[in-house]
Amino acid sequence: MKKALIIASLGLASVLSFSAGAAVHQVTAEQAQNLQSMGTISVSQIGSAPMDMRQELAAKAQQEGASSYRIIEAHTGDTWHATAELYK
């Protein structure tokens, strides 16, 4: 039991430390004025929370190699859709 708990704790710690080192953050329009655009991304989903939208945008931005993103369009309800501009 202790061994499983230790392994789970170490796994969680490694995931958290990786996420903190490679974090992509959301910026405001003012902050984006000093950044170089890399293009846009879009995400859509049915029946989830708005926080899921931010997590999905951040993950997709990280996959594209962006350091930050700015949401430029968002629609919520039973389904949601968001578009974000990526920055280096």
UniProtKB/TrEMBL annotation:
<dbReference type="InterPro" id="IPR010854">
    <property type="entry name" value="YdgH/BhsA/McbA-like_dom"/>
</dbReference>
<dbReference type="InterPro" id="IPR036275">
    <property type="entry name" value="YdgH-like_sf"/>
</dbReference>
<keyword id="KW-0732">Signal</keyword>
<protein>
    <recommendedName>
        <fullName>YdgH/BhsA/McbA-like domain-containing protein</fullName>
    </recommendedName>
</protein>
<feature type="signal peptide">
    <location>
        <begin position="1"/>
        <end position="22"/>
    </location>
</feature>
<dbReference type="InterPro" id="IPR047775">
    <property type="entry name" value="Stress_YhcN-like"/>
</dbReference>
<dbReference type="InterPro" id="IPR051096">
    <property type="entry name" value="BhsA/McbA_stress_biofilm_assoc"/>
</dbReference>
<dbReference type="InterPro" id="IPR025543">
    <property type="entry name" value="Dodecin-like"/>
</dbReference>
<feature type="domain" description="YdgH/BhsA/McbA-like">
    <location>
        <begin position="35"/>
        <end position="88"/>
    </location>
</feature>
<dbReference type="Pfam" id="PF07338">
    <property type="entry name" value="YdgH_BhsA-like"/>
</dbReference>
